[in-house]
């Protein structure tokens, strides 16, 4: 699989800046601990909340309890935006991923993801896999994959940049 080619948006970039490599965005997606997910409520209002996510196999994966607002929103509209990066204006690299959240139910794939979660976040986030879900103590989590349709990378501090991958 070849890497996506980034396109610089000069309107939001410092003069003389070039598009960033996909590897830089992928590094942020792999290493970031906290992500913010935006979903849409049934009445059209946005819903934003922090969560943990794992970049694995070319997709961002996250979990949510079946009774949570995210799960209800996704049942009606699977389109999401996941955002991560730093909260600094003068340094760092922020990344947004737009796509469709698709439920992962295959137990074999869920076991791979459970191992990836624990490798990234430590033993507190050890999940068992049961009947197409993650289990953590008495709780159950639905797992979703988001294959990016569009990714934006924002370089902060001089030089500022905005790179788009589709």
From TrEMBL:
InterPro entries documented for this protein: F420H2_bilvrd_red/Heme_oxyg, Pyridox_Oxase_N, Split_barrel_FMN-bd
Catalytic class of the enzyme: oxidoreductase
Pfam families linked: PNPOx_N
Keyword list, A-Z: Oxidoreductase
Residue span(s) of domain Pyridoxamine 5'-phosphate oxidase N-terminal: 24-122
EC numbers, comma separated: 1.-.-.-, 1.4.3.5
GO molecular function: pyridoxamine phosphate oxidase activity
Protein name: Pyridoxamine 5'-phosphate oxidase family protein
Species this chain originates from: Streptomyces hyaluromycini
